[in-house]
Amino acid sequence: MRIVIAEDDPLLREGLALLLRAESLDVVATASDAGGFLAAVDAHAPDVAIVDVRMPPTHTDEGIVAAVEARRRRPDLAVLVLSAYVEQAFATDLLAHGSARLGYLLKERVGRVAEFLTALHRVAGGGTAIDPEVVAQLLSRTRPDNRLDRLSPRELDVLALMAEGLGNTAIAEKLFVSEGAVHKHIRNIFAKLDLAPTDRTDRRVAAVLHYLEDGRRT
After folding, report:
1. Which CATH number does 2-131 carry?
2. Would you kindly state where each structural domain of the chain is located, as residue ranges?
3. What angle, 0 to 180 degrees and rounded to 10, lies between the N-to-C axes of helices 153-163 and 168-175?
4. 158-181, pLDDT tens digit by residue?
5. What Gene Ontology terms describe what this protein does at the molecular function level (predicted)?
6. C-alpha closest to that of 192 among 203, 200, 180, 178
7. How many angstroms separate the CA atoms of 64 and 55, rounded?
8. 218: confidence class by pLDDT, cuts 50, 70, 90
9. Contacting residues for 172 by C-beta, under 8 A, at least 6 apart
10. Could you tell me what percentage of the chain is helix, strand and coil, using 3-state DSSP and rounding each to the nearest 5?
11. Quick check: 114 pLDDT over 60?
12. CB 24 within 8 A of CB 1
């Protein structure tokens, strides 16, 4: 696995590189700003990019913008975004063009090495990894009345785990139900959110986006 790291904090940047190399992963380049990151992507053709949301010069959304551009240049690039805080707009923007090979983690998750590496490998393998804390904080925000009110408590549980990037098998294990039950719940979610099979968008992604954008108090 070839990895490029884009992080303006030198301690975190070098710490990540040391951690990943200790796991026998190939860190081919590191960068401290968006321009250096894109140059590294062009030069090294990595499999995965680990990108900080806020980077120089304005420390706003340079990392997200650069990640989107990197994916435009290399559509097969897996991207794991790191953020110090839950930033709803960035989380939803990241998923807006599809969830495959994408992750959004809080930086504190890096200190939980096993969880961080699991998320990295999930994203590299084509999956999605959204920090549970991101989902939990989004859930605590109230929003106007919306279609999520149609879902049962169990369907909301399933949708929350979908938002974390879990597949049907993992959801079934988490909830101690069969995969068939999970599949049925997901069909009901699609129906209640008015996501028709003929929709051109990925219904699973659309359901997760609706969930993240609207939030829910449990």
Report:
1. 3.40.50.2300
2. 2-131, 140-214
3. 130
4. 999 998 889 999 999 999 999 999
5. DNA binding
6. 203
7. 9
8. very low
9. 178, 179, 181, 182
10. 55, 15, 30
11. yes
12. no
